[in-house]
Amino acid sequence: MKEKSRKVKMKRSVGDYAISVITYIVYALFALVCAYPFYYIFVNTISANDLSDKGKILFWPQGVHFTNYVNAIQIPGLLQAAKISVARTFIGTALTVLMAAFLGYMFTRETMWKRKLWYRFIILTMYFNAGIIPWYITMRNLHLTNNFLAYVLPALVSPFNVILVKTYVESTPRELQDAAEIDGAGTLRVFASVVLPIIKPILATVAIFTAVGQWNSFQDTLLLMTDTKLHTLQFVLYQYINQANSLASLLTSNAGSDAIQQALSTAQTATSVRMTVTIIVVTPILLVYPFFQRFFVKGIMIGAVKG
Amino acid sequence: MMNNKKKLRSYREFLYILPFLILVAVFSYYPLYGWIYAFFDYRPPRPFSFDDFQGLKWFKYLVDNPIRLEQTLLVMRNTFAMSGLSILTSWLPMIFAIFLNEIKCMPFRKAVQTITTLPNFVSWVLVFSIAYNLLSSNGMANSMLMKVGIIDQPILFLQSSKHVWSTMWLWGTWKSLGWSAIMYIAAISGIDEELYEAARVDGATRMQLIWHITIPSILPTYTVLLMLSISNFLSNGMEQYFVFQNSFNKEAIQVLDLYVYNLAMGSGSYSVSTALSMLKSVVSIVLLCVANKLAKLVRGESFM
After folding, report:
1. CB-based contact (8 Å) between B12 and chain A?
2. Nearest CA in chain B to A120
3. Contacts of B256 (CB under 8 A, 6+ apart)
4. A82 and A60, same structural domain?
5. Could you tell me how far CA A110 lies from the centroid of its own chain?
6. Phi, psi (5° rounding) for residue B53?
7. Within this chain, do residues A106 and A203 fall inside the same structural domain, yes or no?
């Protein structure tokens, strides 16, 4: 009897062991598949450009140099696009977070006239979409094509953010607000000095989601911006990929005789430009994501409960 | 007196949010008015005029001659294929979460989780750039294959009309698998540990624990997410397909959202495009209501 049970246990642990090994291998492989592309592009940008242009760099960098990043400033349109991307990310995020905080708080005020109706009015917009053309024409009628405000205004009130903040405010002790009101603080005063300080954690979540969304946004530039001065990094990256060959010739003709004098290993090629810009565009995400992962996770969880 | 003061305050609070209600009205509700373009002949730069009433002409236009009908059917086929593939494999994140939970080495688990959720936060343009850098004629895939000697001419992966559906699915999965698993990881961590203890005492194996405890516990989460993806059946979004499209793969990659964009911005058919996106919206809302009802039946709780 005892013998048998030991045998069963042995068998089970062998099966468990096999499962463990397979699980580790599969997850390690998938993590590798997720990480390698970024690594591959990065080692190519710091390797000799003639080698990377021939596809010789697969795992280890060769002929390490950083001129690609130094020369990135000369890539036509890149600096301006970086300014626009940074500007929309900071301005858009700051305003969206502030508005989400204010609206989320206001919708917890039971004293407001027809509060539930207005709340539904905003939440309902999550479930329909007029479509690209009606939206585009609306934006054109509002003179928001080729206008920086188009990056900021439409995203200002997001129903999802309002839900997140409202839920959070409701979970904080109401007595704090009541106490302030007894001391004579008005609606706005309560918001600024009582609510705002205690909802910082949820605002961090909203901020990080908004910032990533703003940085990654592509479609609004595609639809609304013909003025190259307002193009974002995402958009110019897309253009660089599609115009890879013409870009290479542009660079050679721009640089003229300089390019010939430059060593082959550091002269810009279409490949080097494409890869360098890719790394420049992805770096903010790579830097920010690991540190703020918990905010992302929290955001999706609260959203799942309420959304 | 007191009552009046209260009333004043309730109106004042409304006034504080009024500017934002106007923003929402302008950017979310007002565009709905644009659906009337579907019933008129609107071709910018010619100004819109109420004299060009066309009735249902543009709706019929989509199907009224064999070539256009074929085009419409092609787009529908792509939409169904892409959405179908992702619904058929919608259990993958659940399995991903279950087996990730089996890993007992915490640093490894944390690392896997961080690395695999990362692609979700890069844009489709960046994914395209990555694909281009890996798969172009001088990219990593071709270099490796040529080094090993399997091929001696580079394969033009991205300029091919073959396997478009499955490669689009692969990129989509690469981007979102780790992130979608997070919901399930949270659901699993909410399962009562005593259930497992009791089953272990009864001699259950690991697979039995997963099969009889973990999966039934997180199945409601799965059902809700499945319903949501069913209600989004027609909305694949256009960004992924837009960045990957080229003249070689257009036939297989053009989904409904992309077609709506191409019709308008490519060929200037604003009215047809609006008609199509209007149809899509109506069907999507119906699907959402049906899915919501189904979720209510299954869980006893709706998600809306």
Report:
1. yes
2. B21
3. B75, B76, B79, B234, B235, B236, B276, B280
4. no
5. 35
6. -60, 130
7. yes
Enumerate the domain spans of chain B.
50-299
Backbone φ and ψ for B247, nearest 5 degrees, come out as -65, -15
A254 within some domain:
yes
In single-letter form, the type of residue at position B267 comes to S
Residue-wise pLDDT tens digits, B123-141: 999 999 999 888 887 778 8
Distance CA A121, CA B29 (A): 10
Kindly state whether residues A108 and A203 are assigned to the same domain: yes
Are A96 and A222 in the same domain?
yes
Cβ–Cβ contact B247 with A under 8 A: no
Range of the domain at A217: 78-229
**Which chain A residues are closer than 8 Å to B179 by Cβ?**
300
Question: Is A283 an 8 Å CB contact of chain B?
Answer: no
Domain-located, residue A14? yes
What homologous superfamily does CATH list for B50-299? MetI-like (1.10.3720.10)
CATH number for the domain spanning A214: value is: 1.10.3720.10
Q: Is the pTM value of this prediction over 0.80?
A: yes
CA angle A135, A210, B25 (to 5 degrees): 35
A219·B239 Cβ contact <8 A = yes
Model confidence pLDDT, tens digit, residues B37-53: 888 887 777 777 777 77
Q: Is residue A237 part of a domain?
A: no
Question: CA-CA distance, B70 to B105, in Å (whole number)?
Answer: 54
Please determine, for the modelled complex, whether the ipTM score is greater than 0.95: no
Closest-approach residue (CA) in chain B for A126: B28
Structurally, chain A folds into a number of domains equal to 2
**Contact (CB, 8 A) for B39 and B53:** yes
* 8 Å CB contact between B50 and B40: yes
| Res B6: pLDDT | 82
CB-closest option in A30, A113, A132 to B264: A132
**Chain B interface mutation, best of A33, A133, A156, A286, highest count of B Cβ atoms under 10 Å:** A133
Q: Are residues A223 and A108 in the same domain?
A: yes
Please check whether residues A264 and A283 belong to one and the same domain: yes
Alpha helices in A54-148 (DSSP H): 67-71, 78-106, 115-123, 132-141
**B153 touches A: beta carbon within 8 Å:** no
